Backbone:
């Protein structure tokens, strides 16, 4: 059952399993892998708290920097909540995966090739969803290295300000070596890890939606095929369609309940981000 579940959800399910955030049905305890989930949640929480402290204790005067700090605070807070909610939904999601596997085994396709077509689509989605976000995240994380150095006047002399990927309030001097290099590497690792987990969660739910959609498509084709073949009088065929319909409704219900809470969080953060960007455009225009 564990191998079948991993095959169904593909690389996103395998990656989240290695991070200790999801366990396939009939699998053992997460064990040491749970440390990966603890690391990601702790990183998101630390960045969110540090950004919030920056807003309160040392509010940036530059509007662009202020937007960046607020963006970090809201996004990292939402990622923390999403991961915790996802891990709380493991039992429900495991039941959904088991229902999908049971449906695929029990009900044959009268029109072959439907499920395999959706399976290929899920694989394409995984790779397509990785390329653009990961490229943007990499450019953002390495921005301080590739951008033009910024000179800051200190007394009668000018010094180069050493920027980091994130604007965080830290109780230490990050301009001196090797503190700057250590903080820079830790921030790059944190940015990539947090963003990648968020992408994996999105892909995980998208794969579930694709497989649920595949079962609905199989049901529709089976109904059409039975009608065309004149099998309306076959009681066994009709009962199988009724059972398959009930299984499809159960999958949709489980998926909706598993996604609803985290979806509200994502929509709220996206609304705040859009407002921030609109505020920035208005300010630039004035």
Residues:
């Amino acid at each position: 059952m564990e191998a079948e579940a991993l095959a169904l959800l593909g690389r996103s399910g395998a990656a989240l399993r290695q991070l200790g955030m999801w366990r396939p049905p009939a699998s053992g305890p997460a064990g040491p892998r749970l440390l990966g989930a603890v690391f990601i949640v702790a990183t998101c929480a630390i960045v969110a708290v540090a950004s919030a402290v920056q807003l309160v204790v040392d509010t940036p005067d530059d509007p662009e920097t202020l937007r960046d700090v607020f963006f970090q605070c809201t996004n990292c807070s939402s990622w923390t909540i999403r991961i915790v909610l996802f891990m709380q939904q493991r039992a429900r999601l495991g039941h959904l995966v088991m229902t999908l596997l049971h449906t695929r085994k029990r009900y044959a396709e009268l029109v072959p090739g439907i499920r395999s077509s959706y399976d290929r689509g899920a694989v394409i989605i995984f790779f397509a969803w990785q390329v653009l976000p990961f490229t943007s995240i990499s450019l953002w994380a390495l921005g301080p290295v590739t951008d033009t150095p910024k000179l800051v006047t200190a007394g009668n002399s000018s010094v180069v300000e050493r920027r980091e990927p994130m604007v965080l309030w830290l109780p230490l001097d990050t301009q001196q070596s090797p503190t700057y290099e250590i903080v820079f590497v830790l921030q790059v690792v944190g940015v990539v890890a947090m963003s990648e987990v968020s992408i994996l969660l999105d892909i995980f739910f998208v794969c579930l939606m694709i497989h649920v959609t595949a079962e609905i498509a199989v049901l529709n084709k089976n109904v059409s095929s039975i009608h065309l073949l004149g099998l309306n009088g076959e009681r066994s065929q009709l009962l199988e369609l009724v059972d398959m319909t009930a299984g499809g409704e159960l999958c949709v219900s489980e998926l909706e309940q598993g996604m609803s809470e985290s979806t509200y969080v994502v929509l709220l953060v996206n609304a705040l981000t859009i407002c921030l960007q609109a505020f920035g455009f208005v300010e630039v225009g004035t």
